[in-house]
Amino acid sequence: MTMIDASSARLGDGPQAGGTEFVKTNFEVYVCKQTFKFNAAHFVAYRGFREALHGHNYFISVRLLGSRTISKDGYLIDFGDVKKAVIRTCKRLNERVICPMHSDVIDITVGDDTVSMVCEDGAKFLFPKADCVFLPIVHATTEEMSIYLWSAVLGDIDQSHLVRRGIHTMEVTVAEAPGQESVFRLGLPKSVDAGNITLDVRAFIEDGQIIPKPCEAGPSYEEKKLDEQEKEEAKQPKLTPLSTLPVKACNGDDGCGACKNALSEQLQKLALAINTNQLCLPTSDTGKTVSIEDLQAAIDKQNSQ
Q1: Which segment, 80-94, 200-214, 216-230, 267-281, is predicted with the most confidence on average?
Q2: Residue 154's closest CA among 136, 134, 169?
Q3: Rounded to 5 degrees, what are φ and ψ at 54?
Q4: pTM over the 0.70 mark
Q5: Average pLDDT score, the chain
Q6: Pairing between strand 114-119 and 124-128?
Q7: Secondary structure element (H or E) that encloses residue 213, with its range
Q8: Using CA atoms, how far apart are residues 194 and 159, in angstroms rounded to an integer?
């Protein structure tokens, strides 16, 4: 997408054609393709905090801001130049574990074949070296990755080529999920002799803005089991004690419907409780006959739990 910005223009600033004055313009090129993506694993860690290891499908887009005019070939810049640079950058990061090499809370040791990461909370990770990518960042956030990617894309496009084309600013957007993205915009050095630049991510991070907090330990095995047991018990039906049932007026008729319904309800609950082993009743081994009092006591005991 190419954009022309004339929002803050005034007459007389632009070129003339046929005696007509144009307002001041700024050309922008915005490139966003489905191929501008990479899949990577990471976790964010700073003093007192660490995320669990997880991954994202990252997407990148690039915006280039130019001058009032475009080149004689009609381009601000060829889309193809931008696409090639971004795809090369994404390929280097695809299906990798992101290692923030300037982290102050992760001890990263790069061996011949493996990479060890030891975190402040004692967590240890060991990855094949070929599966890792080593980035000059402090935290594996989209904000810091957008700074790194700005440098990486600029290096692949060739800064001097952009300057010759009249491009003065580049913007890189990194999205880790729909609606979750970071944007980094910075002006290019004006001199074509400045060479490709690499930004120091640490220069964009303030000191002391994070208040350290203790790492929160997850629930223990015993706590998890107790929680599961309580949830399971909550699913079991509670029985209503016979003594608490509402007493309805009865005319003494043996066929009273209210009495039959109340009895049927209690029998259903008792059967369910016995079949699901909720009630502990005397067995035939004791030689004792089960009485109404036994059933009532068993129901009361179950309801008190």
Answers
A1: 80-94
A2: 169
A3: -155, -175
A4: no
A5: 76
A6: antiparallel
A7: none
A8: 9
